[in-house]
Amino acid sequence: MRALLLRSLLVAILVGTAIDFVSRVASFRGGMKYEPPFSEAERHEIQSMTVNEMDAVLAKRRIKMTRWDWLRESAGYAYFWKEVARDAMVPICGVFLACAWIGWMERRRAWKGI
């Protein structure tokens, strides 16, 4: 029984994390980044502008990102992987319970000789 639980846990960690990672990448619809980054003085200046003025200033620096651009830039940061690990807990638990249940059913069937 111990081996069954350990194998189920290993599969759950690998598959659950992969499920969350693929889901995260697939659900990204595109984003924006601003080049060059804003300095502290520019941020204070932008906060005092009206919405129309702010939109005009931001439009000059706005760059549309594709899914792959976002992934390439985000994958280098620890916060990205921490969020993937945190959000993968539900898929990991689901895969673990499914694997343990299927293993228990298979073992039960073998004991009954079916």
Key terms:
single chain, 114 residues, mainly alpha, 2 domains, two-stranded antiparallel sheet
Q: Kindly state the mean pLDDT as a whole number?
A: 88
Count of distinct structural domains: 2
User: Gap between N and C termini, in Å?
Assistant: 19 Å
Order of the strands making up the biggest sheet? 1-2
Total DSSP E strands: 2
> What string gives the helices and strands in order?
HEHHEHHH
Helix content: over 70%
Unreliably modeled segments: none
Rg, Cα atoms, Å: 23 Å
Major β-sheet profile? 2 strands, antiparallel
The outline comes out as: rod-shaped
Number of helical segments? 6
Structural class comes to: mainly alpha
| Binned strand content | 5-15%
Structure description:
It is built from six helices and two strands. It has 114 residues and is mainly alpha-helical. The chain folds into two domains: 1-29 and 66-114, no CATH class; 31-65, no CATH class. Strands 1-2 form a two-stranded antiparallel sheet. Helix 1 (2-27) packs antiparallel against helix 6. The chain is rod-shaped. The model has no long low-confidence stretch (mean pLDDT 88).
In short, what is this structure?
This protein is mainly alpha-helical and 114 residues long. The chain folds into two domains: 1-29 and 66-114, no CATH class; 31-65, no CATH class. It has helices at residues 2-27, 40-47, 51-61, 67-74, 78-87, 89-112, and strands at residues 31-34, 62-65.
